[in-house]
Prior knowledge:
By secondary structure, the chain is α+β, with helices and mostly antiparallel strands. Helix content is about 20%, strand content about 40%. Strands 1, 2, 3, 4, 11 and 12 form a 6-stranded antiparallel sheet that branches. Strands 9-8-7-10 form a 4-stranded antiparallel sheet, with helices on one face. A hairpin with a 6-residue loop joins strand 3 (about 45-50) and strand 4 (about 55-75). Helix 3 runs antiparallel to helix 5 (about 165-180) and helix 4 (about 155-160) packs across helix 5 (about 165-180). It starts with a strand and ends with a strand.
Amino acid sequence: MPIRIESSFAFSLERETDVLLQFEAAAIPEQRVLSTRTRLSPAIHEARVGAQDDIGERIWIRANGLFEVEYEAEVEIMRDVSDVAACGALHPHQLPGEAVEYLFDSRYCPSDRFQTFVEDEFGNTSGGARIAAIRDWIASNFTYTPGSSGPQTTALDSFVERRGICRDYAHTMIVMARASTIPARYVACYAPGVDPQDFHAVAEVFLADPKMEGGGSWQLVDATGMADPAETVKIGIGRDAADVSFLTTFGMSDFKRSSVSVTRVDQE
């Protein structure tokens, strides 16, 4: 069924500043954008550029003063969802080029720090079975706590605190997958089950595809349990949150407000 999205946010800039936005549903084979409307405040400069791995678009803005964004869309999901636990492992040499960079450490995900832990905790598992075990461990050991983390919080910080928001759950999922030699990336998304509703984040891992002999595919994993992969609308992907923030300012800014509503069309 189609997913309806309504989101808006506003921020203020002290002087002419460059801003990078990424908040629209990506037009990709696994999801079809049925309708869309984006309204932006007048800007000194505006340009669209491709986002990471050509999933979605970013919008460059140069502006001054109060800037407002309003976005509406309906998106139909056509994703082939597999049971993650049933997906096998791929050896590193079997990975396609697109997946290799997601084995490496990134700003918020120091996977080398987790290798001993994942072997001690999940050493009797591999592939999708390990991913499912990691997901369940995070769900059982973390507490979802709005306001408990900030822009500088890493997966290691979240692991120590055992609490966080979707961003922190996704980073912890990613860092443990990479420590297990399983490619993992960060997905900014919308999903109707998120509570409280907001821009959401999940992990995506590359595993052997049971439907594809000798091949692999990306599978969404949400340790918060709020986003159903069959109803998740991708905005964009990256190594971690730094690559796919809905708002990145290259100068001083004051964030004013945001609102997100994501519903199934048949529930309206």
